[in-house]
Amino acid sequence: MLVWLNTLNGADQVETECFTKCLEDFEGPLNGAIMGMAYGGSVEAMGIAWKGRGKVYGFDTFEDLHPKQLSKDQASFEATAMDYWYGNDVYGTASLAYDYIRGELDKQGLDNVILVKGLINANSLKDVPYLNYAILDLDILKSMKMGYELVKDKIVKGGYLLLHDVIPSNHMPTLNDLYLNTILEDPKNNWEIVKEQVQSFIVALRKI
């Protein structure tokens, strides 16, 4: 099994609850996007759950270099959030590689998981017509803003948007501000709060 970092704080339970609920809430093919998947455990779990029902798009750099250049402050927590994990003897960096994760997924026949290497950009979802589920776990404010712009209009009514590291307010204050004052206040997209699990730093929203 691939490593899923969010099992360490319980955020995986919220993620699993929401992507599993999609199987009940929607008919027909499903599309999901995981932006920021590190060691691949989240796309593996979702790929297994959605096998035969939907595609899971996993976005990451697949490198041991967190894109700190996107942060205004190279010493900030948003810029250094992955340093511990990348330097950790338990997880390290070898299992971050695209070829490694792709190989592990292929062993399980998870051809419904599509891995997308590199920084997200304006064209990252150009071939994905709609989303039933998306999670933004990108740490850096600029990346989280870009991620939201990419997914907000693609998520269908009743679809789920999950945001990691946006609560509590003192965890990553800039991301908390993005959540409260941009996403929840979005005049074109109405979101209801499904769950705020503070100890896991995660929020689950549903489009209404």
How would you summarize the topology of this molecule?
Elements: H1 11-25, E1 30-35, H2 41-50, E2 54-60, H3 77-80, H4 83-87, H5 98-107, E3 113-117, E4 131-136, H6 141-151, E5 155-164, H7 173-183, E6 191-197, E7 202-207
Parallel strand pairs: 1-2, 1-4, 2-3, 4-5
Antiparallel strand pairs: 5-7, 6-7
Helix pairs in contact: 1-2, 6-7
Overview of this protein structure:
The model has no long low-confidence stretch (mean pLDDT 93). The chain has one domain (5-207): Rossmann fold (3-Layer(aba) Sandwich), CATH 3.40.50. By secondary structure, it is an alpha/beta fold. The protein is globular and about 45 Å long. Helix 6 packs parallel to helix 7 (173-183). It is built from 7 helices and 7 strands.
Summarize the structure in short.
With 208 residues, the protein is of the alpha/beta class. It is built from seven helices and seven strands, in the order αβαβαααββαβαββ.
Number of domains in the coordinates? 1
The helix-and-strand class reads: alpha/beta
CATH superfamily: Vaccinia Virus protein VP39
Work out the number of β strands.
Answer: 7
Q: Using the coordinates above, name the CATH class.
A: Alpha Beta
Strand content: 15-25%
What is the CATH architecture term?
3-Layer(aba) Sandwich
Kindly, what is the distance between the CA atoms of the first and last residues, rounded to a whole number of angstroms? 35 Å
Low-confidence stretches: none
Number of helices: 7
Radius of gyration: 16 Å
Overall pLDDT confidence? 93
What global shape is seen?
globular
Trace the largest sheet across and list its strands: 3-2-1-4-5-7-6
The biggest sheet amounts to: 7 strands, mixed
